[in-house]
Amino acid sequence: IACATTLYFILPAYFSNGGALAFGGGTPVDFGKSDSKGNRWIGDGVTWRGVVAGTIIGVLTGAVQGYFGPGIIAAIGQYIITPIIPDVSSGILIGFLLGFGAILGDAIGSFLKRRLGIGRGKPAPILDQLDFLIMALILVSFVVELNLIFIAIAILLTLAIHLIANGCAYLLGFKDVWY
């Protein structure tokens, strides 16, 4: 149950991250600016349209979770060791923090990769998989108490899901690399 409730709680971050990719494009957040060495600040992968779309998807996901939260709490409340969104208004706030946090984390990850000289689409193990999750958890921790078990499960689930999803996408021909 801990893995399922952890995954359920962090869905706004996952959906936001995917939504930014699916609905992104257009003007990059860094407006194409480069540093004094000619390296882009963030790159073309993080766009304003993606930020807005991803954040909206996070908010909507949180609102839906908040709607179902009381039923989940009533059904499995005594077994829950991870946070559950208790109502729609909390869901909107938590969805925003997780959704926007995921996008912000992805942008910070891109910024760090550019500073390290790692080009867009090139691997940066751990950073590529966890940047969005870490920032989402940092932002949501201002309104929800997160315990170490929850954080550890979220990190392990995210690493596993990332590996499985990208491996499948590679095998199906949707990606050129397995990572």
Q: What key phrases describe this protein's structure?
A:
single chain; 6 helices; mainly alpha
Layout of strands and helices, then pairs:
Layout: H1 2-9, H2 11-23, H3 48-76, H4 88-115, H5 127-140, H6 148-171
Short description:
This protein has helices at about 1-10, 10-25, 50-75, 90-115, 125-140, 150-170. It has about 180 residues and is mostly helical. Helix 1 (about 1-10) crosses helix 6 and helix 2 runs antiparallel to helix 3.
Residue stretches low in confidence (pLDDT < 50, at least 5 long) are none
Integer average pLDDT: 91
Shape descriptor: globular
How many helical elements? Answer: 6
Tally of strands: 0
Distance between the termini: 28 Å
List the secondary-structure elements in sequence, H or E: HHHHHH
> Biggest sheet: strands, sense, closure?
none
Gyration radius over CA: 17 Å
- The fraction of residues in strands falls at under 5%
Assembly context of the chains: single chain
Helix content: 55-70%
Class from helix and strand fractions:
mainly alpha
Describe this structure in words.
With 179 residues, the protein is mostly helical. Helix content is 65%, strand content 0%. It is built from 6 helices and no strands. It has helices at residues 2-9, 11-23, 48-76, 88-115, 127-140, 148-171. The longest helix has 29 residues, at 48-76. The radius of gyration is 17 Å and the shape is globular.
